[in-house]
Design brief:
Blueprint: E1 5-6, E2 23-28, E3 31-36, H1 48-59, E4 70-74, H2 80-87, E5 91-96, H3 101-112, E6 121-124, H4 131-134, E7 144-148, H5 157-167, E8 173-179, H6 183-195, E9 196-204, E10 209-216
Parallel strand pairs: 1-9, 4-5, 4-7, 5-6, 7-8
Antiparallel strand pairs: 2-3, 8-10, 9-10
Helix pairs in contact: 1-2, 2-3
Amino acid sequence: SDSPVTLKILQNWVPRVSHYFDKEHYTYVGHQIVIQESIEHFGAVVWPGALALSQYLESNQEQFNLKDKKVLEIGAGTGLVSIVACILGAYVTATDLPEVLENLSYNISRNTQNMNMHKPEVRKLVWGEGLNEDFPVSTYHYDFILATDVVYHHAALDPLLATMAYFCKPGTVLLWANKFRFSTDYEFLEKLCNVFNTTILAEFPESNVKLLKATVREN
């Protein structure tokens, strides 16, 4: 119903303290966040969708209040969005592929260890695999599912959609921010709209990022 807001991704990088190419400094919710990147994996680089969603969560805390909410990030990558969700008071579970977890755990622990917040959890999650075993429905219910730049030129789009559908229960809000590059991105968006009630919350035209909210269709 409401048209999406048009935003810029703010250049809120802090002047670099370190001279290493692999550390980026950001400021969200009044906290300096230092992210170690790795060029060895797609998942270990901060993509524009993560900046867009971090900025949106910081600016829209009344609309999306994460305090004491259970939040699952899928494809957490460097952990920036999970760290921001932690600072906003959420119980966060950050997930990704096994090869990304070491860097993810490092970033999350170093940026949250001395703060008065719920201790975040880092777990392996391969889209579409072992969901019932690792995250049984009877035990795990999330208020928010966060995903950024999880859709790019790869073959795991059907398992990704199945994973989103698995975790999105009545009452769960999925927030997905993605840079739209390829026709496959729009095809995934179309599939998402067929499964969920979907709204575009914001668009960042300079970086081709769209931020969407999706909720399960209740019959």
